[in-house]
Recover the amino acids of this structure.
């Protein structure tokens, strides 16, 4: 392995790409240390440790490369850009003008990217305004600012405008960093930003796990024993193994190309395979499901605060918020159902069996035993429907691993989220994509890949 890493650094072009990527990721992490104007980082740190809303914001941060529990210039992360990209991708399948742009090749892709940037700015302004108005000044102005003197209405409004523009500019800058990594660096820029946010939180989760552990066999006083740490380690390895297995898993459809004669030569007739990924949807179903499940917890939690906490309505709203904000049976069942729904929904958008069948027909290829055209499309749809069950089941299992860990082993949700489940799935998937990008550079120069023996 050290020899392969030495070969990677010996290639000047690849070395420049890696150093540029690392430098941009360092700038990304540096921005999370810069608070908004007049905000006291020490007071915000106290709020982030208080639990409640801060715990929900930490869960949101897993999927958005953000740090909403810390009032910084990059507080929104890259989630507005991801939301805008998903919106335009969904519209591309139902809105004819966007569908026509998608079929125009590079020119259409650039136009859609331009629209996505405009939508990102619009979403940033809305989200940052809601965040600033609901989390920072209205919650407790003197709990966040450096000078807790009574603010005037004009000062509050001016600070809100400055905070909204600052957070919007921060997200646009992160979007630019992601595009620069795509063009001049190595790997997918947005995915690497999300992965960097996850990895940066893992050491803190590890330290929290160590504080909660003891060297005794059975633990005690709320601490984890040696046997529980071994179970956590085995589950950690099992989740990584499962992620790698499902991510690389394919259903290979046998495919035959038709023979044709050109001059005196007979061409074609070769037997190939059409690979269909088992997990065609990736991590998007988990992100969608988790985001939707956070909305009831936030909305009903806010309604509970509006009413009397000891009143009937306040207790009812708080109870509903706890059902969706906790790790109980209702949360797990709803999460699994949403993951299955979004897995099939996202697969239906990203994989069109009719287009695949038409492309096979145009290139003179066919699946043995199935007539080109509609029969081939129906067969591909049936196969994809079956293997999607496997991918959705795996994603559902990965999503409830944190609930199993925190519920049975009394581990805090922060530790469970980062050492089993969605965070691990995202980190391993992005790492695999990065290794494949590096391997492509090595293979072009007749070197062995990083994963080749």
């Amino acid at each position: 392995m050290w020899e392969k890493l030495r070969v990677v650094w010996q290639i000047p072009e690849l070395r420049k790409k890696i150093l540029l990527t690392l430098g941009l990721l360092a700038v990304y992490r540096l921005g999370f240390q810069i608070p908004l104007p007049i905000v006291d980082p020490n007071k915000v740190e106290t709020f982030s440790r208080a639990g409640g809303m801060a715990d929900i914001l930490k869960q949101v941060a897993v999927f958005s490369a953000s740090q909403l529990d810390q009032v910084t210039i990059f507080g929104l992360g890259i989630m507005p850009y991801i939301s805008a990209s998903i919106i335009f991708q969904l519209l591309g399948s139902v809105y004819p003008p966007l569908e026509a742009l998608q079929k125009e090749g590079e020119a259409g892709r650039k136009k859609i990217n331009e629209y996505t940037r405009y939508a990102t700015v619009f979403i940033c302004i809305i989200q940052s305004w809601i965040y600033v108005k609901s989390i920072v000044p209205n919650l407790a102005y003197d709990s966040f600012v450096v000078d807790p003197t009574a603010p005037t209405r004009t000062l509050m409004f001016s600070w809100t405008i400055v905070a909204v523009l600052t957070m919007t500019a921060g997200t646009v800058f992160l979007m630019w960093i992601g595009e620069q990594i795509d063009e001049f660096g190595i790997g997918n820029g947005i995915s690497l930003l999300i992965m960097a946010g996850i990895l940066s939180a893992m050491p803190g989760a590890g330290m929290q796990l160590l504080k909660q552990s003891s060297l005794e066999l059975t633990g005690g006083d709320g601490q984890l024993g040696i046997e529980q740490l071994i179970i956590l380690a085995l589950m950690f390895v099992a989740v990584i193994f499962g992620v790698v297995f499902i991510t690389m898993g394919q259903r290979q459809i046998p495919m035959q190309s038709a023979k044709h004669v050109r001059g005196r030569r007979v061409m074609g007739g070769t037997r190939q395979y059409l690979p269909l990924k088992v997990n065609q949807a990736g991590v998007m179903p988990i992100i969608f499901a988790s985001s939707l499940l956070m909305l009831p917890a936030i909305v009903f939690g806010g309604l509970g605060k509006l009413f009397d906490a000891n009143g009937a309505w306040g207790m009812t709203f708080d109870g509903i918020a706890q059902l969706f904000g906790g790790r109980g049976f209702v949360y797990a069942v709803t999460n699994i159902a949403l993951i299955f729904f979004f897995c099939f929904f996202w697969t239906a958008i990203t994989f069109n069996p009719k287009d695949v069948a038409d492309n096979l027909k145009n290139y003179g290829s066919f699946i043995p035993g199935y007539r080109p055209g509609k029969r081939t499309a129906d067969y591909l749809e049936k196969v994809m429907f079956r293997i999607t069950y496997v991918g959705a089941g795996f994603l559902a299992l990965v999503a409830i691993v944190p609930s199993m860990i925190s519920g049975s082993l009394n581990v805090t949700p922060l530790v469970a989220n980062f050492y089993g489940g969605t965070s691990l799935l995202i980190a391993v998937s992005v790492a695999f994509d990065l290794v494949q990008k590096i391997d492509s550079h090595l293979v072009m120069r007749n070197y062995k890949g990083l994963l080749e023996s």
